[in-house]
Every structure is written in structure tokens, then in C-alpha cells.
Amino acid sequence: MRIVHLLLTSRFAGSERYAIELAAGQAEAGHDVTLVLRRAALADRPDAPGRHLPPGLPIVTVPDWWAGWHARRWLRRHRPEVVHAHLSAACKALRGLEGPVRVATLHIAYKPRQHAHLDGLIAVTPAQQAGLPAGIAARSVQIDNWTRARPADEGARRRVREGLGIGDDTVLLGTLGRVEPSKGHDVLLEAFAAAGFSDRVRLVVVGGGSALEDLRRRAPNGVHFAGFTNEPAAWLAAMDGFVSAARSEPFGLVFLEAMVAGLPILATATEGGRHLGPRFGSPLVPPGDAPALAQALRAFVGGGLGRRAYAMDDFRLSVQLPRFEAFYRSLAR
Predict the structure, then answer these.
(1) pLDDT tens per residue across span 284-295
(2) What torsion do the CA atoms of 210, 211, 217, 223 make, to the nearest 10 degrees?
(3) Are 194 and 77 part of one and the same domain?
(4) Which are the contacts of 31, defined by CB distance < 8 A and separation ≥ 6?
(5) Could you give the C-alpha distances from 138 to 87, 109, 121, 298, 323, in angstroms and in order?
(6) Which of 103, 287, 302, 305 lies deepest, with the highest CB count within 10 Å?
(7) One domain for residues 134 and 16
(8) Number of folded domains in the chain?
(9) Residue 204 shares a structural domain with residue 301
(10) How many CB atoms lie within 10 A of CB 233?
(11) pLDDT in tens, 146-199
(12) Which domain holds residue 56?
């Protein structure tokens, strides 16, 4: 199939990883795939999506100014069979486009202005699909996310911990991902302070975003900030437990990365948390509830934080690729 993935963002996070890995996986499977990006995605920054492109994946760039209009014009000229949009700007760019099958993944949530005009939607959790309007739900499918993450190298844990100035006997809790209000880092810092841990328990926040500087100013003792990283596996290897205090998390690719690392996971009862929670083995916490999270953190640490093995076969891209193709073809009939 001739497939175009449309991604018009300029910062790399979980949704961008999803789009790039899906495009690359489909190309490896023999499809004719092109990834359309805005020029800012190729900026010389560590968090630019262009820094994370695999060798050989065909890309096209459109101007940053009126990126959606330029993308739509390119699509009209090249007429792929399928256009798969990712996030708001790309979805809006497909309004009025005729010819290709137009689909999108619900990386965040269904919004009529972004999604109602599309031919099909891909939900990432069953709850997300169940919440769609009836007409849209009939043109949807639920497909789990996946991970291509690999465990870190043998020396990663020691290397990262030395950089933080802590030894292997320190219990290191951590969270990884975009530092935005929806991710609940402010709640996590409040809960960590209220938990009353000794100096042998620390917290590291890995990632960049709009809320980072405010969090730095408000952080209690024992909290480290790593900023954006291109080595998530190394940071996960350094942790003893992974914590997500998100107010909203449609799926949470980082949960899968933490599972690959074998980390115990404490999470809030978001859509993603409820979907994957039975695999975590620890109770979910109400989002936005710092006292409840503080209590859960004490139980989490007190219960022991040994590595564990998760069943990951359901979360391989090779398992999901045929489902995408089948969905595209069902919409093309």
C-alpha cells in the first residue's frame, strides 16, 4: 500500500515516537511509506523529531508557515492510498481532502473538530473506543501501542547514579516523559514531600516541557531533574521504581518502556493506567490526589522494589502491523 504518515509537530515525545516507529515498521514490511514533517521537526535540537528518524525512511518536509495547507497540497498531487494523521494539526490538515483513506490515531482524546471528518479512527485503549460517538465508533478499531525499547547496557545504572551523586543503596523512584501539567508532576512532588522519606529515597524527573522550570523552583529536597534525554533506557535502568502521577494518560508508551526495564510501577487511574494496571500488580491511585499518592508511595517503597518480568508479547509492533493494514483495507472498500 502507498501510505503517508502526517506529523506536523516540532518536539519529540511519545506520539512522535509512535508515528515514526509505525511508519518505519510498515516500510520494513514492504509498503511504500512516506513521512511528512514540518521543517521545524528537523531543527538542530535534541528533542526535534528529525533526530529520531531511522536511516532510509523516506521523508518530505513542508514549510512551517501554513504547514497544514502545504501538506494538503502535497497530498493532492501525490495521491497516496492512505493518509494516517497524528495529533491536532495533521488531523485538521485532512479536512476537505478527497481520494485517500484518511485515518488518525487518538493519541490524546476524540475532538469533533479534529476527527469527525476522518474516515476512520484508531483508539489506543478499549475505554477510549467505547467513548466515541456511535457513528465514529463504527469506523474505529482499538489497537494497543507497542515498544521497541531494549534494556540498557550493563553499566548504565552505575553511570547514571554516579552522575546524580548517589550509590546503589539509595532507593531511586523516577518518572519519565513530557513535563506538562497533564502529567501531574506537581502532584508527584507534593506527594513525595508528604511521604516523609529519609535521605536514602530519592526521586528523579526525566524529561523536558513547559512545566519544568516551575517544578525546579518548587521541588523539595531529594528531587533530581534530568531534562530531556535520548537515553531513556539508561535512566530507567538507574531507577528502582517507576511512578506516573498523570492527570491524563490515554495509553502511556512509557509504561511499556518501564515494563521492558522490569521496573515495579505505581500509576494513577487514567485510561492508560486502567488498561495496563492489571499487569502492574499495585493499586491505582486517583489522579490529582496528593495525599493518596503519598500513602501509595510509602506502601510502594515499603513493599520492596525488586525487578520483575512482564509478559511483553502483546506489545510488539510485529503483532500490531497486520491490524493496521486490515483496518486501512476495510475503510477502502
Answers:
(1) 999 999 999 999
(2) -120
(3) no
(4) 1, 2, 3, 325
(5) 21, 17, 9, 44, 16
(6) 103
(7) yes
(8) 2
(9) yes
(10) 17
(11) 999 888 999 999 999 999 999 999 999 999 999 999 999 999 999 999 999 999
(12) 2-146+316-332
